[in-house]
Amino acid sequence: MVDGVELRHLRYFLAVAEELHFGRAAARLHIAQPALTQQIQRLETLLGGRLLDRTSRSVALTPAGAVLRERAAAILGHAARDLDEVTRIGQGSQGRLYLGFVPSVLPLEPLRGVREFRERYPLVQVELVEGFTTRLMEQLGHGALDTAIVRDPDPQPGIHTAPLVTEPYMAVLPADHPYAGRDSVTGGELGDQPFVFFPRAAGGRAHDRNLAPLHEAGQRPRVVQEGTTWTTILYLVAQGLGVTIAPRSATFTAPDSVRVLPLTGTSSDTTIYVATRADDDRALIRNFLALLPGHSGSRAVN
């Protein structure tokens, strides 16, 4: 745009070009007619040519004025749309949200908040990223994710976490296991069994909490097979490769060929958290957290 030309100049000119009468245009703009005349003259000076042919009885567009009438409407329309978009982004109702999650939260409430968020803010594109807790926390810290729903994350500087859901652990055995017919089992009773489990690299704190029922009984697990998801682990258990201890929600989709038993003699449990960067106070994040089931609105920094 030519230096000095402002959107108000275009708005004033467009009113005159549409009314072809300075008095009516001034009334429409709620300004005095002399002020309007002065602004149109200023615009003509900035653009270096006449835009209007004025007589005591009529106002007509010059060829340059006819072109500007068309372009001014387009420019003002684009400006309004662009500024509206900026406003929506500032209010968190438009943009893109990168949300990480661990697969074991799928049966629980937190991810159901994504649907409500999408319905409430249809102009926000939500990108879901699946992964281990450790990897998701790394991506969050590097800015590749905006927020993450994780299980028992290790503390990380600059990352806020807030608890969403706490649940117990369950023992998962092959259907033909000697303990399969029991009502419950203790961690100590599983201590000498071959274990199918996830690698420690997936999350050190989650790994330790998950095996706490054994450690509390003075037992050390003998891991004979690792799996990268709970679905894989449960199906390996179903094939008789070993037993495992899993969060209750992770067992909701267990195959019929396993037996899921309550664990007794332990106070260990597991918690799902929502994690965000400490310095990220965007409205987009606040809007998402407000609709996240179980979120209290407060955040704790590690």
TrEMBL record:
InterPro entries named among the record's database cross-references: LysR_HTH_N, LysR_subst-bd, WH-like_DNA-bd_sf, WH_DNA-bd_sf
Alphabetic keyword roster: Activator, DNA-binding, Transcription, Transcription regulation
Pfam families for this protein: HTH_1, LysR_substrate
Domain HTH lysR-type span(s) in chain numbering: 5-62
SUPFAM superfamilies: Periplasmic binding protein-like II, Winged helix' DNA-binding domain
Gene3D superfamilies: Periplasmic binding protein-like II, Winged helix-like DNA-binding domain superfamily/Winged helix DNA-binding domain
Family the UniProt entry places it in: Belongs to the LysR transcriptional regulatory family.
Descriptive protein name: LysR family transcriptional regulator
Species of the source: Nocardia acididurans
